[in-house]
Amino acid sequence: MGVFNQLMDGMITALSMENLIACFVGVLVGTIVGVLPGIGPVGAMALLLPFSFGMDTGTSLILLGGIYYGSMYGGSTTSILINVPGEAASVVTCLDGYQMAKKGRAGAALAVAAIGSWVAGTVGVVLLMIFAPPLGQAALAFGPQEYLGISILGMLLLSNLTGGSFLKSFLMFVLGLMVSTIGIDPLMGDNRLSFGVLELSRGIEILPFAMGLFGMAEVFAIAVDPYDVGELIKVKFKELYPNKNELKRSFWPIMRGSFLGFPIGLIPGPAAIMSSLISYKIEKTVSKNKDEFGKGAIEGVAGPESANNAAAAGAMVPLLALGIPFAPATAVLLGGFMIHGVTPGPTFLTQHPELFWLVIASMYIGNVMLLILNLPLVGVFASLTKVPSKILMPIVTAIMFIGAYSVNTSFFDIFLLIIFGLLGFTLKCVGYSPAPLVIGMVLESVFEKGLRQSLIIADGNFLTIFLRPIAGTFFGIAALIIAWIIIGVFRKSTKISAES
Amino acid sequence: MKLKKILISALVATMSLSLVLTGCTKTNTKTSKESTQAASSSSYPSKAIVLTVQFAAGGSTDLLARALAGVAYKYLGQPVVVENKAGASGTIGTDAVLKAKPDGYSLLTQSTGNFTTTPMTQGAPYDPIKDVKHIINIATHPILLVVNAESPWKTIDEYVAYIKQNPGKVKYGQNSPGGTTHMAMESFRKAAALDMKMVPYGSGAAEVVAALLGKHVDSGVMHPQEAGDHLKQGKLRPLLVFSEKRLKSLPDVPTAKEKGYDVVIGVTKGISGPAGLPDDVVKKLHDAFKKTMEDEDFKALAKNTGDLEFLDYKNGEDTAKFLQGMYKKMEPLVNELGLKKK
Predict the structure, then answer these.
(1) How confident is the model at residue A16, as a pLDDT?
(2) CA atoms of A299 and B148, how far apart (whole Å)
């Protein structure tokens, strides 16, 4: 009963009218939810969960799954057009995508994001199909010590993501770490930095934070220094789509994003954001056009957008293979499974293979639907950049307010949006990039949990952390990087003293 | 031309103003007509009821709430809508409902921790005894002590013996710092005089299950539904259950009580509302949810979510008595462990 045969059986069931409609509704809702800043796949899946009660198990899983991976497509739209991340994972796309839009290449950015998402989504499903069980087992070998190693490595590699002064970036990074500690300590329940305000106990949500730093800050900046539409290059229809050069430059970033993003989905927590951050760093490091990054390099859109779609597929590995959800979205998917009496896990593949292959087959179909949905809309969306700023900015602000509110149905998040907007604007004025703030925010939970749990388990004996094979490798690489940086500093200073 | 501009700007201004005004009013969507109607409880319920789940979507409380909501409309005549308001170990959602208007349209999924240990260890802006009116208890989720099936301990006695021989070295994982599951394990530790290390895992039993399977901790405490497939497949071995009687689905697992450790702690799940709910509204809700519990459709859903076995009906007064008793029981333990909020 080869893999191919089972896939074909799944395909046939997936192509039934009912399942096709469920798939379409799922990916459509997912895209809309991804485009709209604020409400995310978790909210949408929770909303549609009751609808799925009456449906066939397979059909409801197709619907919920569609929302899940569909939202990874739409998130980049607002990031590119108005510097507002539609999904937390699309923050990185703001960096270069928005700059491309300012140069009149919004259509190209959107199209490349859609194509990259499609390739990565499909690659992700293939990898999921082939590697789910063994990868699931491998994911179990990662304990707190390994996550500590990964987060330290991430800190070293990502804290200077946007280049410029390392000190400035690191300062922002540490500030991000501090902001992330606000709220109830997830490990011991202490109320930290909440000053008695109940809303602060919940912690700072990443979405109002990122929307404020990027989107709101941009609104303030434009208010102070508005741009005229006439200054934007008049874009012809043909130029709305990426030209050959841009497509060529996007090819390898998409490939790298797809294959590297997938394993990152296995890490518990903010896997999609981490994968897009890592992809951005990799693309920047290996690119021949390093200087363009931050000013509108298409690799900076292609790579991260592919990576977050691949990570979404990767996050389904622990869910399907082990029945363990590592992210809130996969937790709702698990709920969807369970309410239909299916428990994903090791027996899922042996007891309900037809369900597994149905979901996989429908993921292929869903990704194609998403490509067809998103590509033609590129033109429509790109023309938004032609709207004069005095009309666009209030609309953007309204969208952000609604989006920030919708995350937790809380007015407090709107205050946060404005406060972080002011912070982001101030940073802009003094020449700091907000990206490291977001990185610090994202990495903090992984780092803190890994550190504290490792220390408890180690009982004060640090060696036990470093001597673990996988963790030790990460720490070793981190040590080498630090050594490399220090050597580089010495070389530079000896060069300067030699020249003087 | 100028008049047109003025008209348009006036229209835009009025529209935005009305948007802002509607946005600034309380989130309980009520028109003035309906709020006067709601006070007269003979017509209750006259519109949809919002059931707030104070935990994330997809969790065990959430699934139970959705199963209930899906069937309860039959007996209430109005839909029950589940809304998630997670954060701060459930205190944010709980507080939102307890401070809402007591008209029966804002309900909460009661979970033991929010009314016992969480206010003690973390603090809560509501009084867990005075601010709430418990309507009905639906289920009690038992707490299991599990180990990885590849571990050498086959019974709880072997495990306890091992821990006594290796004080301070054996680790257990839990995912609700200061919560009921954590307290259950700590009560057991105290009763058996065990020196163990506690590894906290924060949000979600998923991480504890993963840690157990990956052998990063030796044992863990969780609900049977959270252990899921792995329990059935024999990857995880349950050693002890902290309930009154042995579980029907796990007849070979001894209770702590029968082993001589007086630890009977489960996590109750029910429906509650703000204090001040009129008695007839409470009675209507109680009767409707009791009928829901006995409904075949609900039972089918509960079977899937794993709640069917743990259905544990208690009326509002008994629930209140139970929770207050639990509060008093947990207080000395919390103080002893040094977990009391300073």
Answers:
(1) 87
(2) 45
